[in-house]
Structure formats: structure tokens, C-alpha cells
Design brief:
Layout lengths: L1 E12 L2 E13 L4 E5 L6 H8 L7 E6 L2 E2 L5 H11 E4 L11 H6 L13 H11 L15 H13 L5 E5 L7 H18 L2 E5 L11 E4 H6 L3
Parallel strand pairs: 3-8, 3-9, 6-7, 7-8
Antiparallel strand pairs: 1-2, 1-4, 4-5
Helix pairs in contact: 4-5, 5-6
């Protein structure tokens, strides 16, 4: 279960207060596939950063997997994220001069799930799952956009997270590759029985989800 209550996220921009997000309540049940929509700047990425523990709200409470993230230290939130949450970024967020395998192994070192000797074996299994085991020694900067996103997917699921967050995972891809990537993400979430939250601007993808949530409408509901 993911639950946010009475959330306010306010940034200080050179003395000007900017309200990035304001939500009274949001709940996502275990195993749900939910799409988040809304115009640019309405707070979708801020919401995902709060759910992942990368940000703390100015006010309010964030509870994920029965853990109150707002009561944890930064280090505790980092460890929680490593063990429970897989985050797929629009811009891939990979290390371009590292190999494909090195990029996937890296987050495993922050998790307590695997012994050191198991990491490479598990990473290779994940790369095979996304169709990139043949490019394990290739540097990421030499890959196509679709291949980079597959590396990002493998990296995000290698620790077998309960929750997968995907922030516009097809935003930098053409329609054909975007459709393949979204199909791959939803299939993996189903196989892993993971909760899947996806930010998307592509309305044609919405039928792949249990429901869609417009962040702007949630904001409007409490004004």
C-alpha cells in the first residue's frame, strides 16, 4: 500500500514560495497498475520523488509498505528505496562510460538482497530478461535509446522491488520503441506482482492500467 495524506510540497525560489504539489489523500493498493497524467509542471515527478523517499514533503505524511518515510533519516530512506522501489527515469539516468553489466550491478551493492558473489549472476539474468545479455560488456553510451531504456529497466528491477516507478519511460523514444518498452514494463510488473506507477502523456497507453489519475484534478479537489 502507498498512502499520502495532507501533502504540501513548497519550494523556495530566491524568496518566492512555489507550491509544487498539494494533495489531501492518495492511495494505491498493492499490485495495482496506475497511470498518472496531467500537464507539465503539475507535480507528477514531485509525487514520485516523495513516494520514493528522494524528497520529503513540506507538510504531510508518506507511507509506503507500512513504513512512514517522513519519519526516516536520509540514509534510512536510501536503504528502503534500494530494497523496495525500482525507479525508471525518462532520461535513463545511467553511467554512459560504464558497461551495461556495470550499470545493472551498481544498485545491487546498496541493497541487502544479494551476497557479493551473486550479483553478477543475477544481473546477467535480468539483462537476458530484457534482451540485452549479448551486450553486457558494451558501454552504455554506444547503445540506442531503446536499448538504454532496457538497461534502465533491468537496473530498476534487479533488486526485485515491490514497487516500480516509471517517470515518462517512453518520453525519449519513438512510438514503436515506446510501445515495446511500455509492454515490457507492464509485463515485468505482472510477473513480479509489483505495484506499478507510471507517468505518461500518451493517452493510447492508458488501457494498459487498472486506472489513471490526473494530478491536476486531485489538486483542484482540495481548493
Amino acid at each position: 500500500m502507498i498512502e499520502l495524506n495532507n501533502i504540501e510540497m513548497i519550494y523556495d525560489d530566491n524568496g518566492t514560495k512555489i507550491e509544487a504539489l498539494k494533495l489531501k489523500e492518495l492511495k494505491v493498493n498493492d499490485g495495482e497498475k496506475v497511470a498518472f497524467i496531467g500537464s507539465s509542471g503539475c507535480g507528477k515527478t514531485t509525487l514520485f520523488n516523495l513516494i520514493s523517499g528522494m524528497l520529503l514533503p513540506t507538510k504531510g505524511k508518506v507511507t509506503v509498505e507500512d513504513v512512514g518515510l517522513t519519519s526516516l533519516t536520509e540514509g534510512e530512506r536510501d536503504l528502503f528505496r534500494a530494497n523496495h522501489i525500482g525507479y525508471i527515469f525518462q532520461d535513463f539516468n545511467l553511467f554512459p562510460d560504464f558497461t551495461v553489466l556495470q550499470n545493472v550491478v551498481l544498485p545491487m551493492s546498496f541493497s541487502k538482497r544479494y551476497e557479493k558473489g551473486e550479483m553478477e549472476k543475477e544481473a546477467l539474468a535480468m539483462l537476458k530478461r530484457v534482451g540485452l545479455d549479448g551486450k553486457k560488456d558494451q558501454k552504455v553510451k554506444t547503445l540506442s535509446g531503446g536499448e538504454r531504456q532496457r538497461v534502465a529497466i533491468a537496473r530498476s528491477i534487479v533488486n526485485k522491488p515491490n514497487i516500480i516507478l516509471a517517470d515518462e519511460p517512453t518520453g525519449n523514444l519513438d512510438y514503436k520503441n515506446g510501445a515495446k518498452i511500455m509492454e515490457l514494463i507492464t509485463q515485468i510488473a505482472k510477473e513480479e506482482k509489483a505495484t506499478l506507477l507510471v507517468i505518461t502523456h500518451n493517452n493510447s497507453q492508458l488501457d494498459m492500467f487498472d486506472r489513471s489519475i490526473n494530478i491536476e484534478e486531485l489538486n483542484e479537489a482540495i481548493k
